[in-house]
Write a structure and sequence with these properties.
single chain, about 400 residues, mainly alpha
Length: about 400
């Protein structure tokens, strides 16, 4: 097994006391996912002489055809409930019999996401874990970061590489500057996303020319715009186009969401679908789009009301995403990273607004956090999601901020 390491890393303050809920977890990460097993762990399991585990190791580990060292095999799921074959009474038999050190890299690391960016080590939590979703979305303080001791497997650390230390210093500054834009509480979240988009579009042009030295000037200019109330020019005149938002996000959102992979996800989504579509279980595509559009337009103002006591909910979601993914250096360019973020923002907002579409039954923030956790289970670990959104944006001819701004506005 690859050893667990204790490191000092930058973490969001709300995460410092994270503790797995274990058997109390409503959507155990060991259900519904075919967990990858790395080669080192696979070989250790195969040579284990533990009397209770040896028969399971012999029959429940499935080699991946052409698998990499990180995804060398997977664990078979139980037919009856799609739970991991090593799960007993909500507890992992490998962990209880052999200890946490014996878990595979994936099981030992989840739900933590560790990134090394030059000499900066950081760790966040994915919202596909119910406890992580609640602590990140429902608390204030996601915007504060502290140094803390955390554990990780070195093989699980995502590394951001820069050509040299001078560039690394600039890219780290850009990362924290983009987080600062998301913290501008005097702006609505769609306004923060729009300003971020214009910044990313300009930064991407500099990046394309290898002109990292000019990024400091660009950040200063946006800092001035934010500080001096000079954003009106950027934000005025941006229209709202819910029908285009539905065209870009709804099909993809529903085609993947309708495939829940645990009893918890199914229960959450069944309730959501009943709220949005009533008893209608199938609809022609045109009627479906019309229904979603109608419910979405009704839901947007209600969503704001639903989150009146949790004004940081959406910004916390975005900050968590940006922090974990080393935004905006997680794609081939800064603007591509931004489009990835837009895809998450637009689709989640649509989901939550639909959940709030009936003014008589506006969802509680806790319900919206649960829906976000289910969303994350389906989309955060699905790279094809961003590709599908990209395709939809391409089809609609949206590849610049001039057009994208229109699908960001509430
Ligand atoms: S999803 Fe989170 S709380 Fe639930 S079992 Fe996994 S790590 Fe623990």
């Amino acid at each position: 097994m690859n050893p667990l390491q204790t490191i000092t890393a930058l973490v969001p303050a709300v995460n410092t006391d994270f503790k797995c809920l274990g058997s109390e977890c409503p959507d155990n990460c060991c259900t519904g996912w075919r967990v990858p097993i790395d080669q080192t762990t696979y070989q250790a399991y195969k040579s284990s002489m533990h009397p209770g585990l040896k028969p399971l190791f012999a029959t429940k580990l499935v080699r991946e055809a052409g698998g990499s060292p990180a995804r060398y095999a997977t664990i078979e799921l139980k037919q009856e409930d799609h739970g991991c074959s090593f799960l007993e009474g909500g507890l992992c038999k490998i962990q209880s019999e052999l200890g946490e050190e014996a878990l595979s890299d994936t099981c030992g690391g989840y739900p933590r996401i560790t990134v090394q960016h030059g000499d900066l080590l950081q760790q966040g939590l994915t919202l596909s874990c119910p406890d992580a979703a609640n602590r990140v979305l429902l608390q204030e303080g996601m915007t504060e970061f502290v140094q803390a001791e955390v554990t990780t497997r070195l093989s699980q650390v995502m590394k951001i590489r820069d050509p040299n230390e001078a560039v690394a210093q600039i890219t780290r500054s850009v990362r924290f500057f983009t987080l600062r834009i998301l913290r501008q509480e005097h702006l609505a979240v769609w306004q923060r996303m729009t300003v971020l988009g214009f910044f990313c579009e300009e930064a991407a042009a500099l990046q394309k020319n290898g002109d990292f030295a000019s990024m400091s000037g660009l950040m200063d200019r946006y800092e001035d715009l934010i500080g001096n109330g000079g954003l009106d020019k950027i934000l005025s005149g941006i229209g709202s186009y819910p029908s285009i938002q539905v065209k870009v996000f709804a099909g993809i959102l529903f085609s993947k969401l309708l495939k829940p992979n645990s009893p918890h996800q199914k229960a959450v989504l069944d309730e959501f679908l009943a709220d949005v579509f009533g008893t209608q279980t199938s609809m022609a595509p045109v009627a479906f789009q019309a229904r979603v559009l109608d419910r979405y337009i009704a839901g947007i103002p209600n969503l704001e009301r639903a989150l009146a006591d949790r004004p940081s909910f959406m910004a916390n979601f975005l900050v968590n995403q940006m922090f974990n993914e080393a935004f905006p250096f997680n794609e081939s360019s800064i603007f591509e990273s931004y489009i990835r973020l837009v895809s998450r923002f637009g689709s989640l907002r649509m989901l939550l607004a639909l959940q709030c579409s009936d003014p008589a039954r506006i969802a509680a923030p806790e319900r919206l956090a649960t829906l976000t956790q289910v969303y994350a289970r389906n989309f955060e670990h699905a790279p094809q999601f961003k590709d599908a959104i990209n395709q939809a944006l391409d089809q609609a001819g949206f590849r610049s901020m001039k057009f994208i701004a229109g699908i960001i506005r509430d």
